[in-house]
DNA sequence: ATTTTATGACTGACTAGTCAGTCATTGTCA
DNA sequence: TGACAATGACTGACTAGTCAGTCATAAAAT
């Protein structure tokens, strides 16, 4: 079925020698415009209710052009998720220096997450995946494989380190890194759904949560 | 005016074995069948992708019948959410006796939540609300008003009691009852999306989380 | 001039919502 | 009690509209 990698993605081979506004470049720009527009529309309306005409209009492109880049609506959605998520994973995988206390590490993660995800388009994407996941097993699979399982593994490693160093009391926590992450996820969803009813100070909430796990912070 | 339909349930002679279908009863049954079918379909496909024909077929009813009970697809969805949620709220509002430790109370809540929500159709409904909320402000509003704000308030009261009684150390927790609830919500979502990849022992996870908040449990 | 890329009018499949007609149930009267 | 009339719940074929995907044509690049 969708075995095809679609139209050859303009992955320019390492070298460039090619003038900036080559075909490949233009194609890549158009593709990016389509991805951005699609992101916007899918987040606002969900998969089924999004019209390709709207995506095309927003991207400043004719509808037919979309089909030069994507096989159909479904695979566009799937590729969109991949396209947007991969760089985020890459960024998070670029681990910070293993210096300082575990709490500092976790806090670095948290503040990064706060800035890069909560209340941003990427946060909305998370909600979108939760929303459409059951109807797009391939998306859910991908997300689990690339983001969730890695994230859980990384958090577990951190927790174990924290336990080993005596920073974390509750040793069972290592079995459920989800607990460490849960408030952050809740914050993402809260901002999408209830921000207008009751804004949430995500940063402060995460701080309190970390106090709960690591104990009250002394002085820094 | 004897115009009243008088839901005359008494019409059926006591001894008769035919109380099967008065008009009113049948109507109520049909409405219930439609609500059930709609719930199933909306959960499986989301709002936009659900066909009224499918709901009708599943409910064993003609499409036109749906319109005798609901104005249109949108208000059907909205009423559906209300219909399903109200009894749950009622149940949770029936507070347990204020006996025992706060931890016991919270644990009672948790185990109730586990049994009644996580991994059930109601859990899927929560996911559905997260999914469709942004496109159905009225649903999100209703859910916030009837479930979220009450739940948060209730949890806050419990936390404050726990703090007053010395069961809970972290006094800032009262400002973010979301932290108390977060793992439970994550469990709901996890079961919907990732259960097949990595089943989650929600009960055990919640126990660990409560240990984190209340401190390790002594004896039971 | 030829090939590649882009366009947008067009098509056909699909579906929310309607409504004229049917008929089981209920009410009335002899 | 039985026959007949009134009611309105129920049906499903139909309408009007939508939208994913196509393709003949045009523009741009080479």
Question: What this model shows, in words?
Answer:
Two copies of one chain form a homodimer. Chain A is mainly α and 220 residues long. Chain A has two domains: 1-71, Arc Repressor Mutant, subunit A; 77-214, Tetracycline Repressor, domain 2 (Orthogonal Bundle), CATH 1.10.357. Chain A has helices spanning 23-45, 52-59, 63-69, 73-93, 102-116, 121-132, 137-164, 177-194, 202-214. The first copy, chain A, starts with 22 loop residues before the first helix and ends in a 6-residue tail after the last helix. The model of chain A is unreliable at 1-19 (pLDDT under 50). At the A-B interface, helix 6, helix 7, helix 8 and helix 9 of A face helix 1, helix 6, helix 7, helix 8 and helix 9 of B. Chain B binds a DNA duplex (30 and 30 nucleotides) through helix 1 and helix 3.
Features:
homodimer, 220 residues, mainly alpha, Arc Repressor Mutant, subunit A, Tetracycline Repressor, domain 2, 2 domains, 9 helices, disordered N terminus, DNA-binding
Q: What integer is the average pLDDT of chain A?
A: 87
What is the helix tally of chain A?
9
DSSP strand count of chain A? 0
CATH superfamily of the largest domain in chain A: Tetracycline Repressor, domain 2
Q: How much of the polypeptide of chain A forms β-strand, as a percent range?
A: under 5%
* Class derived from helix and strand content of chain A: mainly alpha
Sheet having the most strands of chain A: none
């Amino acid at each position: 079925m969708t075995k095809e990698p679609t139209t050859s993605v303009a992955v320019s081979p390492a070298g460039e020698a090619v003038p900036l506004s080559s075909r490949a470049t233009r194609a890549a720009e158009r593709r990016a415009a389509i991805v951005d527009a699609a992101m916007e529309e899918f987040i606002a309306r969900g998969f089924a209710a999004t019209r390709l005409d709207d995506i095309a209009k927003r991207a400043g492109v004719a509808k037919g052009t979309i089909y030069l880049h994507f096989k159909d609506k479904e695979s566009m959605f799937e590729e969109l998720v991949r396209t947007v998520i991969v760089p985020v994973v890459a960024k998070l995988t670029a681990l910070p220096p293993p210096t300082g206390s575990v709490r500092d590490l976790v806090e670095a993660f948290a503040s990064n997450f706060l800035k890069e995800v909560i209340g941003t388009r990427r946060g909305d994407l998370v909600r979108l995946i939760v929303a459409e996941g059951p109807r797009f097993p391939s998306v859910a699979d991908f997300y689990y494989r690339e983001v969730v399982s890695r994230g859980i593994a990384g958090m577990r490693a951190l927790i174990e380190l924290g336990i080993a160093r005596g920073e974390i009391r509750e040793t069972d926590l290592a079995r459920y890194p989800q607990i460490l992450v849960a408030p952050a996820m809740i914050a993402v969803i809260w901002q999408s759904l209830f921000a207008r009813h009751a804004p949430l100070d995500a940063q402060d909430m995460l701080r309190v949560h970390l106090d709960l796990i690591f104990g009250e912070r002394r002085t820094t």
